[in-house]
Structures are given as C-alpha cells and as structure tokens.
Amino acid sequence: MIFMYMSHLECPKCGATYDPHKLTQLCACGSPLLVRYDLDKVKANFKKSDLIGA
Ligand SMILES: [Zn+2]
C-alpha cells in the first residue's frame, strides 16, 4: 500500500504543506496539491522485502 508512505501534501505554487490525512485537495492559494511520499520509508521497506525474498 503506497498510501502508507504518504508524507504530506505540498502546494507546487506557494510551497505550503498539508496533513495528508485531512484529504485536502486544494491549497489556500487555489492550486491543486501534490502528494509527497516518504522515500526513506519506501526504500527501507523494499530492502526488507528483498532480504525476506532472498
Ligand atoms: Zn498554495
């Protein structure tokens, strides 16, 4: 589940960040928000899976 790795929502226009669990889709400035992922967590999990699979 990729949603487990969601870090925050980010506005590409003004840089404001939002809690991903609030399901906000628009920034206060009116721009759609982008989902940012916690890449460290994603990498750590893939590593773990590789070890278990080996
Ligand atoms: Zn904004």
Report what the structure shows:
- With 54 residues, the protein is of the alpha+beta class.
- It has one domain (7-53).
- Helix content is 28%, strand content 20%.
- The protein contains one helix and three strands, in the order βββα.
- The chain has one helix spanning 39-53, and strands spanning 6-10, 17-18, 34-37.
- The chain has a three-stranded antiparallel β-sheet, with no helix packed on it.
- A hairpin with a 6-residue loop joins strand 1 and strand 2.
- The longest helix has 15 residues, at 39-53.
- The chain is elongated.
- 4% of the residues are buried.
- The mean pLDDT is 84.
- Zinc ion binds at residues 11, 13-14, 16, 27, 29, 31.
Top keywords for this entry?
TrpB-like_PALP_sf, 54 residues, alpha+beta, Threonine synthase, elongated
Strands side by side in the biggest sheet = 2-1-3
Bound molecules: zinc ion
Please, how many domains?
A: 1
Oligomer status? single chain
- Report the average pLDDT across residues: 84
> What amount of the residues lies in strands?
15-25%
Distance between the termini: 21 Å
Query: What is the count of DSSP helices, taking H or I runs of 4+ residues?
Result: 1
What overall geometry do the principal axes of the alpha carbons give? Answer: elongated
CA gyration radius, whole angstroms: 14 Å
> Which stretches are poorly predicted, pLDDT < 50 over at least 5 residues?
none
Sheet with the most strands, sense and barrel status: 3 strands, antiparallel
Structural class: alpha+beta
Q: What is the succession of H and E elements?
A: EEEH
How many E strands? 3
Determine the fraction of residues in helical runs and give it as a percent range.
Answer: 25-40%
InterPro entries: TrpB-like_PALP_sf
Protein name: Threonine synthase
GO biological process, one term: alpha-amino acid metabolic process
Organism: Thermosinus carboxydivorans Nor1
